[in-house]
């Protein structure tokens, strides 16, 4: 997935630390949306609760989603993500298809084959991805024109609600609810729709199952080859306290070895641990990888008594990300769960003027 010429974002990464946006879900929470708001007229008769399907807001509350993008851009974000973390037919099925386990059945490859062939789910997933990409670009282009500073749209591709690495059946370790090809098919559609909507790059993020991520990367390669259009790819994993991806249990070094052939624009860590626990794993990845390093952690641990639902405030996140920058570990910085536009503004201010981690082109980085 090598880019034939240097991408404009690559130039920025060599001169300063780029800022990526914060948490869409956390910020939506502050708008006080209710079930009726996400349903709108279009999904008024849906039989399952939809409020946790945050991607759907791109269709039913586009003004709110655009306002959130605007706020992150005003906070200093160079890169904003599409509201598509769960915008695949597989993940959307959780909200629109009855769970067979409630009727004595089970989720298995036969069930998910019907899901990836379902016209309603395919059309819905395509529409969410394409429309979210267009909304992002509208706001990014406006901010770029107003500030005379380029902004970039990253097509967010999340980890799915199923695992290719683990069996949910304690009595059958070899059982998988879904196949590699089914997961790849869902990601092919997502990648293609995001590109149709005009994203500048693709972001495979919050990787806790490396085999799912592999399916996403194979899907992206397939789309690039078939459609003759190549975009930069960012890759970001979520790790546990031991520094391993959560389900597949790959170490940091093993994770990098598994994805470096993609020649991504960046590789990094997000979500999972708060920044206080992420440092040693980020340091190891920075030492191993020969591409740009991204870091956008959660705002600490979940805390239902906090306004954002997480422990750390803007000043806390700014302090931690500032430490990472001064240690020469990062090229891209931002926040995941719990990080509002105020958090991103504080991070951007704290990192202003600090040099980015040096890229090692001689080792073949993108």
Q: Could you outline the blueprint of secondary structure elements for this entry?
A:
Blueprint: H1 8-15, E1 18-19, H2 24-29, H3 35-39, H4 57-60, H5 62-74, E2 79-81, H6 89-96, H7 109-117, H8 119-147, E3 152-157, H9 180-196, E4 201-207, H10 210-227, E5 233-237, H11 252-259, E6 266-271, H12 275-288, E7 292-297, H13 314-326, E8 332-333, H14 341-351
Parallel strand pairs: 1-8, 2-3, 3-4, 4-5, 5-6, 6-7, 7-8
Helix pairs in contact: 5-8, 5-14, 6-8, 8-9, 9-10, 13-14
The percent range for strand residues is 5-15%
**Rg, Cα atoms, Å:** 19 Å
Proper CATH architecture:
Alpha-Beta Barrel
What is the typical, i.e. mean, pLDDT? 92
Number of helical segments? 14
CATH topology: TIM Barrel
Instruction: Tell me the number of structural domains.
Output: 1
List the helices and strands in order: HEHHHHEHHHEHEHEHEHEHEH
Q: Care to describe what's here?
A:
The protein is an alpha/beta fold and 366 residues long. It has a single domain (8-363), classed as Homocysteine-binding-like domain (TIM Barrel, Alpha-Beta Barrel), CATH 3.20.20.330. The protein is 45% helix and 10% strand. It has helices spanning 8-15, 24-29, 35-39, 57-60, 62-74, 89-96, 109-117, 119-147, 180-196, 210-227, 252-259, 275-288, 314-326, 341-351, and strands spanning 18-19, 79-81, 152-157, 201-207, 233-237, 266-271, 292-297, 332-333. Helix 13 (314-326) runs parallel beside helix 14. The chain starts with 7 loop residues before the first helix and ends in a 15-residue tail after the last helix. Residues 362-366 have low confidence and may be disordered.
């Amino acid at each position: 997935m090598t880019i034939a010429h240097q991408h404009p974002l690559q130039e920025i990464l060599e001169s300063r630390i780029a800022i990526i946006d914060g948490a869409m879900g956390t910020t939506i929470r502050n708008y006080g949306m209710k079930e009726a708001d996400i349903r709108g007229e279009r999904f008024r008769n849906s039989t399952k609760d939809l409020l946790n399907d945050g991607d759907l807001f791109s269709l039913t509350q586009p003004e709110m989603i655009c306002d959130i993008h605007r706020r992150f851009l005003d906070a200093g974000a160079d890169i904003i993500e599409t509201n598509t973390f769960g915008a695949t037919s597989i993940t959307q099925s959780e909200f629109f298809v009855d769970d067979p386990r409630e009727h004595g059945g089970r989720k298995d490859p036969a069930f998910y084959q019907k899901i990836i062939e379902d016209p309603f789910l395919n059309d819905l997933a395509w529409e969410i991805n394409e429309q979210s990409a267009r909304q992002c670009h509208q706001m990014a282009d406006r901010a770029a024109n107003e500030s005379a500073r380029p902004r970039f749209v990253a097509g967010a591709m999340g980890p799915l609600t199923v695992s290719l690495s683990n069996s949910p059946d304690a009595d059958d370790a070899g059982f998988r609810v879904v196949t590699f090809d089914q997961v790849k098919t869902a990601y092919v559609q997502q990648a293609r729709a995001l590109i149709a909507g005009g994203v500048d790059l693709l972001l495979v993020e919050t990787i806790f199952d490396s085999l799912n991520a592999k399916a996403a990367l194979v899907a992206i390669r397939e789309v690039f080859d078939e459609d003759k259009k190549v975009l930069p790819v960012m890759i970001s994993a979520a790790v546990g306290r031991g520094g391993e991806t959560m389900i597949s249990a790959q170490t940091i070094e093993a994770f990098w070895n598994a994805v470096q052939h993609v020649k991504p624009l960046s590789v990094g860590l997000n979500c999972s641990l708060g920044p206080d626990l992420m440092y040693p794993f980020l340091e190891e990845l920075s030492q191993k990888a020969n591409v740009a390093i991204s870091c956008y952690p959660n705002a600490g641990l979940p805390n239902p008594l906090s306004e954002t639902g997480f422990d750390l405030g803007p000043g806390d996140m700014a302090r931690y990300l500032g430490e990472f920058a001064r240690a020469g570990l990062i090229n891209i910085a931002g926040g995941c769960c719990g990080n509002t536009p105020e958090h991103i503004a504080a991070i951007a201010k704290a990192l202003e003027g600090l040099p980015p981690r040096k890229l090692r082109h001689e080792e073949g980085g993108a």
